[in-house]
Amino acid sequence: KMVPTAAFFSKLVFYAFFYVKLASCKSDEYVRSLNPDILAEVTSSSVPVAIRVDPVGCERVPGTCNMYNEFWDSVASVFPKRVFRLSCAQQKDMCLKGDLIPVEISEPREPIFAFWVDGEFVHYDETRNPDDILEYIVEEVFPRSARKGGKDIIVAFEAAEKYNANIATHSKAEMFFQGQQFEKAMPILIEHIDKFPDNLNSVVLTANLAGAVKKSDYALELMKRVEEKEPNNAFILGRTAQILHSMKNWDMAMEYISRALSVEPDSEDADEMNRKNLEDLRMVCTFEKKKANYVEPVGEL
C-alpha cells in the first residue's frame, strides 16, 4: 500500500530500550548512494526509482537498517542504476530539507522505503518484510525492462529468504526470553551469534539473556564485542554500564555512563531516550559505592 508523503509524516516510530532485532553489516556493492545532484536528476525525470532512507541512529544498535543491507544490495543488482540509499547520518541536510523522510520521528530505528513514481515521492507504509517490499517493487514500481543488464531476480528472492530465516531465529529466541524461558533461548542465541557474529542486535539480546541468568562476565564479554564495532554508541555504553553496576564495579560503570552521556544529542550514536535512566544510574552507583566503602567511626575510649 502506498500513501502520500503528508500522510506518512504523521507516523511515529518508537523503540523501547530492549527492542532488538537482527542486523548484518554487509557493505553496499550495487546500491547507489543518493546525493543532491542525483536527487535533482531523479526528480526531473519520469524514470521510477527505489530509495531506502536510513534515519539518523538507524544504522546503530538497536536500529534495524543494517539488517536490510544484503537484501537491498541484491535488489540493486537486479535493477541496475535504479536503487538508491540515503544515509541521514551522512546527509543530514537532505533528510531535513527533502520529502524522503519525516522530520519528526521519535527514535527512528527502522528504514523508510520511498519510490519516485509518476512524478512524486510516495512511501511504502506496510510491513518491512523483504518479501512484501520486493513483491511491490516488481509489481508496482519497475517495469520488466528495468531488469535489463541486471542479475536474475532469484538473487533478490534468495536474499529475502535469508533475511526471513535469520529474523525468525532471532524472534524465536526473543519470544523465549520475554517468556522467561531462558534455558530455551540461550542455546538458540549462542548458535545464532556464532553463525552470524556481525548480527549485533542478536549479540545484545544474548548479553541481556546472560545478565538475566546471572552470567555477568559473559554478558560483559558480549557487550565488549559490540563496543568494538560501535565504540561511541550511547545505547551500548549505557547497557554495558548496567552490567558493570550489577557486578558492583561502580567506578567502571560510572566511566561508561559518562561516555554515554557525553555523546552529542543529534549524533547517530545518541540514545536520548535513556539519558534520564543513565543519570539516575550514576546517582545509584555513587550512593552504593559510598555505602560499600563506609567505615563505622570508632569512638574514643
TrEMBL record:
InterPro entries: TPR-like_helical_dom_sf, TPR_rpt. TPR repeats lie at residues 234-267. Residues 1-25 form the signal peptide. Transmembrane segments: none annotated. Keywords: Signal, TPR repeat. This is Tetratricopeptide repeat protein. SMART domains: TPR.
